[in-house]
């Protein structure tokens, strides 16, 4: 599937603001892919489809989670997490996109996970730093993303966890696993007492 076709599909599927976010994630993902030697076309396609299921109803997403035997844990956590794995499923089912790396980049773009591939990291980070984002601390993450993929990813996970803690929100285990997995390895420095 080429870029034009993919964009046409998601444009029909998403409200205007979400489509514009998607477009910016695509542009950001391409820049990051070039910078960190990730397949640009895969990054482009994963970014275009990353929020494909964002506007599906909770009931419909729940049905796919149950019918496709996805982790039942998802249903105990915030419904905001569901569009990522459901999106990966629908994109594989409805379009000829079979590359597991692309599908996993969509599947894990909200929570992250332990041992993410570079493509998964690029999509997670592009979603976090696209120019329309105004999260507290996003500027620091953008600066780190100029030079070090793991350090930027680590900072974005840390910010997200801190944000969720502050709001007394649950934190999905994969998000902690992604954080723990990066800490102290791959160039992320532990701060010891
Ligand atoms: O779909 P987007 O809005 O573009 O962004 P996203 O897919 O990263 O969704 C982010 C939302 O998910 C954000 O409001 C925080 C929320 N969220 C809820 N529980 C968790 C979580 N995010 C992570 N990483 N881990 C959680 O456990
Ligand atoms: Fe999303
Ligand atoms: Fe997004």
UniProtKB/TrEMBL annotation:
It comes from the Bacteria. Keywords: Hydrolase, Iron, Metal-binding, Nucleotide-binding. PROSITE patterns: HD. CDD domains: HDc (cd00077). Gene3D superfamilies: Hypothetical protein af1432. SMART domains: HDc (SM00471). It is an enzyme of class 3 (hydrolase). This is bis(5'-nucleosyl)-tetraphosphatase (symmetrical). It catalyses: P(1),P(4)-bis(5'-adenosyl) tetraphosphate + H2O = 2 ADP + 2 H(+). The keyword Hydrolase applies. It comes from Bacillus carboniphilus. The lineage of its organism: Bacteria, Bacillati, Bacillota, Bacilli, Bacillales. PANTHER family: BIS(5'-NUCLEOSYL)-TETRAPHOSPHATASE, SYMMETRICAL, SLR1885 PROTEIN. Its EC number is 3.6.1.41. It holds the Pfam family HD. Residues 18-132 form the HD domain. GO terms for molecular function: bis(5'-nucleosyl)-tetraphosphatase (symmetrical) activity.
